[in-house]
Write a structure and sequence with these properties.
The complex is a heterodimer. Chain A is of the alpha/beta class. In chain A, about 30% of the residues lie in helices and about 20% in strands. Chain A contains six helices and seven strands. The longest helix of chain B has about 35 residues. In chain B, the strands form five sheets. A five-stranded antiparallel sheet of chain B has the order 3-2-1-15-16, covered by helices on one side. About 5% of the residues of chain B have low confidence. Classes of the chains: A alpha/beta, B alpha+beta.
Chain lengths: ~180, ~475
């Protein structure tokens, strides 16, 4: 039976997903071993039940991120914090240093000061999600089984972890594979 | 009294965009909006940091085209120091940008868009993706994967990493092209040409059977903007700005990118985190312009390399004046891959790329500097204001995809007007509307949706906010 794999993308740059695509021709082999049940690269409407393994890219930045993360945890056996933004909140969390009003401040700069026509902060209920007060790494929101650092993790590191998980072994990351950045 | 249809790509998660379609009482589509729902705040949280850090930080805006931010940021640094960088550094930056154009365009074509043409608009959604392509045509999928890989390898050969290389710096670059790197690129080029020619042949066949899509997918008059060389040739990293209109006439030329703010304004729509830049002299929204491969081919007079120039001639025949159909972004993208390969090939015989004079150095000589580069999906601006110690006081970023925001809105409306009538929402509409957006290969990290099929959820909402009908594809 194929492993049911999902990959998701919260607040981040998509670089970890691009690194996943850097698996290149290994993707063709992977297609025989896993069923990709949910991912930006496949067409599935709702995060499904009974997922075996989910790679989570990105930090938790807004209400939409928060809501889906709880859903993912409830429906998945093994979660991997995929890349530095998921592991530490990394670059998206740079706004946290601006203090309590950071969300307001970043919106002010982009949509009021850097606009010539209709300067106003986007707000539309049900359309544009509100920013959280603080950007969080995923493990501050839900329990995470494994951490895969890197900005992004190089394809070889992703391959090594996925191969270990597929073989049923307890995955080990050592030495250079624990490097951030 | 209008009704509103919301297309929500289960954005709860990877979806960072939604679409609303407004329907009038007669059941006709009156308008549409494209909403981007992700925002991280780089323009503010970079304040106070030294400008030397910016290439490293800002490329984290986007993992699909990090090199664009890396280069635009390094160029803004060049402007703050008011230096001319060594010629070898300029060539090496260009080589990396060509690598990025190849990988990003290959991703857009093979991994994302080809499944629609090749497997069919109405093929089962579960297969209409790159894995479906692997299952149905392994050789083509492998060739596409390897073409993207070739672009990524060029980036890694120069910068040590495929994604987020710490390589370009204000004043130049850190390393030159090694002999091993040169040999590897040279050996791979023939295969890359074969794949690109095959893709061009495939797309030409697609155009024969997709006349309706060419007519309907974002086919309207607008301005076009891109960088051009002093002689009007295609540019991707240097040169100055040119605007043309849909008749092909030049309306502004050789505009200094340092003064982009004299020709470009930004407008906010409160229903989206993506701002809409417009051509200032025409105001908002009349100043709608498009950027990216279609625009670059429209504004330039020649590519500057023979194989791509032959294709450009064919391309230009597809329009009266400018080529105005956004469906033809795909064709333009393939022509740019071909041009990029020819320029890479030319660089392989250039000894200067091995030079060790790679970096100019200086303190702060200008308190404001703008860096501009052609990202795969359009012109990218980084505008930094610093204090005398080089600490950032203000940052403004105009990303490529934003500049296509108005055009993406019109494209969605045009497709919806054709396919939506009354309260019925035909299921295949979803993929077609999606494809309208995909033509632009949007990358807001945003790429979010660009990567693959957006799962879609459409609601037809009446004037009182009540859901009248609903359709989902999953």
């Amino acid at each position: 039976m194929k492993i049911r794999l999902a990959t998701v993308w919260l607040g981040g740059c998509s670089g970890c997903h691009m690194s996943f695509l850097d698996l290149d021709e290994f993707l063709i082999e992977l297609a025989d071993a896993v069923e990709l049940v949910y991912s930006p690269v496949v067409d599935v409407k709702e995060f499904p039940e009974h997922v075996d393994l989910c790679l989570i890219e990105g930090a938790v930045c807004n209400e939409d991120n928060l809501e889906i993360l709880h859903k993912i945890r409830a429906r998945t056996k093994v979660l991997v914090a995929f890349g530095d933004c998921a592991v530490t909140a990394n670059v998206p969390a740079m706004r946290n240093q601006l203090g309590a009003a950071n969300a307001e401040n970043v919106l002010q700069r982009a949509y009021i000061e850097n606009a010539q026509d209709n300067p106003s902060v986007p707000k539309a209920d049900g359309i544009v999600p509100q920013l959280l007060e603080r950007v969080l790494p995923v493990h501050e929101v839900v329990y995470i089984e494994y951490f895969l650092p890197g900005c992004p993790p190089p394809a070889a590191r992703i391959k090594s972890l996925v191969a270990q998980l597929l073989s049923g072994a307890e995955p080990k990351l050592e030495g250079a594979d624990l490097k951030f950045g | 009294m209008s009704k509103r249809i919301v297309i929500d790509p289960v954005t709860r998660i990877e979806g960072h965009a939604k679409i609303s379609i407004f329907v009038d009482d007669a059941g006709n589509v009156s308008d549409a909006e494209f909403h981007v729902v992700e925002f991280r705040g780089f323009e503010k949280f970079c304040e106070g940091r030294p400008f030397h850090e910016m290439p490293g930080i800002t490329q984290r805006i986007c993992g699909i085209c990090p090199v664009s931010h890396l280069l635009a940021s390094a160029k803004a640094g060049d402007a703050l120091m008011a230096v001319n960088i060594p010629p070898a550094a300029d060539k090496l930056r260009r080589l990396m940008n060509l690598g990025q154009i190849i990988q990003s365009h290959a991703l857009s074509f093979f991994h994302l868009s080809a499944p629609d043409f090749l497997l069919g608009w109405d093929s089962p959604p579960a297969q209409r993706n790159v894995f479906g392509l692997i299952a149905s045509n392994k050789d083509l999928a492998r060739a596409g994967i390897r073409l993207r890989q070739f672009g990524q390898e060029i980036i890694e050969i120069l910068g040590d990493k495929k994604i987020h290389p710490a390589w370009a710096v204000p004043g130049g670059v850190r390393t030159s092209l090694s002999k091993e790197g040169r040999d590897k690129i040279r050996a791979w080029l023939p295969e890359a040409f074969v794949t690109t020619n095959a893709a061009l042949a495939l797309f030409k066949k697609t155009m024969e059977t997709h006349q309706r899509e060419i007519q309907l997918y974002g086919n309207f008059p607008s301005l076009f903007m891109g960088l051009v060389a002093p002689d009007g040739s295609w540019e991707h990293h240097g040169g100055k700005l040119r605007f043309t209109d849909s008749s092909g006439s030049i309306i502004a030329d050789q505009v200094d990118p340092q003064k982009y703010y004299e020709v470009i304004g930004e407008s906010v729509q409160t229903t989206s985190y993506l701002k809409s830049p417009y051509y200032l002299p025409l105001g908002f929204p009349d100043g709608i312009y498009r950027v990216g491969p279609l625009a670059r081919l429209n504004v330039c007079e020649q590519m500057g390399v023979p194989k791509a120039d032959a294709e450009l001639k064919l391309f230009k025949k597809l329009g009266r004046g400018a080529v105005t159909s956004s469906f033809l972004y795909h064709y333009a993208r393939l022509i740019e891959i071909l041009a990029a390969l020819e320029f890479v090939e030319r660089y392989m015989d250039d000894a200067e790329l091995s030079s060790d004079y790679l970096r100019a150095d200086a303190g702060i000589n200008s308190l404001r500097g703008v860096g501009v580069s052609e990202a795969p999906r359009g012109t990218l601006f980084h505008d930094y204001t610093v204090d005398r110690n080089g600490l950032l006081q203000k940052v403004n970023l105009i990303v490529a995809t934003g500049q296509n925001n108005l055009a993406m809105n019109q494209t969605v409306a045009q497709i919806a007007r054709h396919y939506v009538k009354g309260k019925e929402i035909p299921e295949p509409l979803l993929n077609r509307v999606e494809h309208g957006i995909r033509c632009y290969d949007p990358c807001l990290s945003c790429s979010t949706h660009a990567v693959g099929q957006m799962p879609m959820h459409v609601q037809l909402i009446g004037p009182e906010g009540k859901v009248l009908s609903e359709v989902a594809r999953g």
